[in-house]
Design goal:
With about 140 residues, the chain is an alpha+beta fold. The chain contains three helices and eight strands; from the N terminus they run E-E-H-E-E-H-E-E-H-E-E.
């Protein structure tokens, strides 16, 4: 695990998964069907417990202009700048439980932002950076 700094806020827009974790892949497929130029754009996964205890997952793509998601009928989310505790997973699809195990470890980090979320930064088709924001890092 290592600290990783996001230098600026990033607007993304997203499709909410119907379930977690089973709905993740269909959510990205729906996002790809809605956004014709999704290839080559940054993809993210954003998850956190909401409405009591259920984990809500958002399959997201970086906006190229402010409010771009509205053109697709999708909601936007701001990934906040600041310091995140992170870990890169290589070939993550070869061992899917490793993603949740990595987040379980990251969530044990002292000083997490209580309003934070789990963030997956898809570095390419095989590798992701798993991140959780630290408090007072905005």
């Amino acid at each position: 695990m290592e600290p990783y700094t996001l230098e600026r806020d990033m607007e993304v827009f997203y499709v909410k998964a119907s379930s977690f974790p089973q709905g993740i892949k269909p959510a990205f497929e729906k996002l790809a069907a809605l956004v014709p130029d999704i290839q080559g754009r940054k993809l993210y996964g954003i998850s956190r417990p909401e409405g009591g205890c259920d984990i809500i997952y958002r399959a997201a793509v970086a906006a190229q202009s402010p409010g771009e998601g509205a053109a697709y009928g999708l909601d936007s989310f701001i990934i906040r700048k600041g310091v995140y505790m992170s870990e890169v997973l290589l070939n993550y699809e070869q061992d899917p439980p490793k993603v949740s195990q990595t987040f379980d470890r990251l969530l044990q980090t002292p000083g997490l932002d209580p309003q934070g979320y789990c963030l997956e930064d898809y570095l390419n088709e095989k590798d992701i950076r798993c991140m959780v924001p630290l408090a007072f890092s905005h």
